[in-house]
Every structure is written in structure tokens, then in C-alpha cells.
Amino acid sequence: MQKTTDGWLSGMLGVLIFSGSLPATRVVVQSLDPIFATCARATIAGALGLILLVALRQARPTRDALMPLVLVALGVVIGFPLLTALALRHVTSAHAIVFVGLLPLATALFGVWRGGERPRLPFWIFSVAGSVAVGAFALRAGAGASSSGDALMLAAIVVCGLGYAEGARLSRALGGWQVISWALVLSLPVMLPLAWIARPASLAGVDPAALWGLAYVSLFSMLIGFVFWYRGLALGGIAGVGQLQLLQPFFGLVLAAVLLHERVPASMVAATAVVVGCVAGAKYFSRAMPVRRPG
With contact defined as beta carbons under 8 Å apart, do 218 and 93 qualify? Predict the structure, then answer.
């Protein structure tokens, strides 16, 4: 019981940390290039992850773990940060957060695919309903939205779902914080040179808030949040603790309104509520019915 409780508490801390990612990224890309921001946050977090692995004398991952680690890196170290940074050049963080409501569904879908599960029909009904709700909201936004921003956010959710699912599977054998640390270290040979190439000519004109935002997404969103998140998945169970992601859009909307003074209309809250409800139903029916054996 204590182990499960610790898992839920760790998972909740992870979700709370991740909830600040989009608002912080929104601040960053107002002053810094999205490519530089993506590479810089991965480089900073990767350097810290390398220090942790060396200081704690962690064994190198096995050859079988390398490909899953590459998928984690492509999904949560490179793909999601880059795509969301590009999307937030076109849409507000409050608008983008609605799409985050699909992240638990994407994680579940990749879990089904990678785990070979066979969910019941209600799972697919809720899945389609959630997707339709997001699409309807994006269309209803009209001139205030950006089709390119919406497309980038959808792509970000897909790659992040893959990274979450692979990381959750791998954390059972490798350990929670080790998964994200090794994924970050694997990305360093690519992200460090790119960060240097894409660096701004000078930081003199950069808004200090953007630098604080970069520090947040580098330390918390990219590393510390995953330490709590993967620990929660390992202790409390992927299916149970994974449902805490459903709270992330609400936390994010509050942060966008309080910190960035972005307007959060009732339609956006309603869309988020519908998506969260659909994903909750999909998660509930994500496990296949047990097969009855004769006799």
C-alpha cells in the first residue's frame, strides 16, 4: 500500500511539473529561436543526467535497451519539445494545452501497440470521441487559431505518447530516472552541436523571463519531472498512475491564465473537459476482457 501511495504522489509531482512546460516554453520562444531552445534544454538536462549517471556509477544499458532509449529520446527529448516550441509560435499555451488532453490516449494507444493488448470496443469509442472533440474545438477556433500550430501540436502528442510508452516499459527493468538520463545522454552528441550552431548572436536583448523559462524547461520539464514521473509509473503502475496525466490540461490552463494572463474562454475549458472525460473512459476500457478457458 505504501509503495502504491508513493507512486501516486511521485506521479502527481511529475504532472504538476509538466503542467508548467507549455507556459514556460511560450515565454521562451517569444525571445529565442525554437530550435535553439529545444537543443539548449536537452543539452543542459543531458549534461546533468550524465553527471548523475557517473556519480551514482550506473551500469551502461544493454544492447536490447538501446533502441527503446532512442525512441524515448526521439519522442520526449527531441520531438515533443521541438514541435511544441514551433507550435507556440502560432498558438497560445492555453490553446496548445487542450491538445495535451490527448496525451494519455496517445500513450495508451502506443502501449496497446507495443504491448500487444486487445482493448474492448468502448475503448475505441472513447478514443474516436476524444479525437473528434479536439478537432471540433480546433475548427471552431476559426481565425484565432492556426492550422499549422494545431498540426504541430498533434504531431507533438503522437511522438510524446510513443516516448512515454517506451519509457514506461523500459523503466521496469532499467529504473525510472535512469531511463530519461540515458535518453538525454544519447541525444547529447546531436543536441550539443546544434545548440552551439543555433545560439543567438547575443543574449543582451533576450527577455530575462525567457532565460528563466529556459531554465525551467531544462531542469524541471526535461529531467526532474521525468524522475518523479517514471518513478511513479514504476511504483504505482503504468495504468493507474498514467491517468494522472488527465489533470495536466487543467493545471496548465490555470498556469497560462495566472502567469501569462492569457484568456481562457469557457469553450476551451469545455473542450478540455470533454477530452479528459473521453480519455478517462478510454483508459478505463484499455484492458482486454479476460479470456475464459473451457472446463
Answer: no
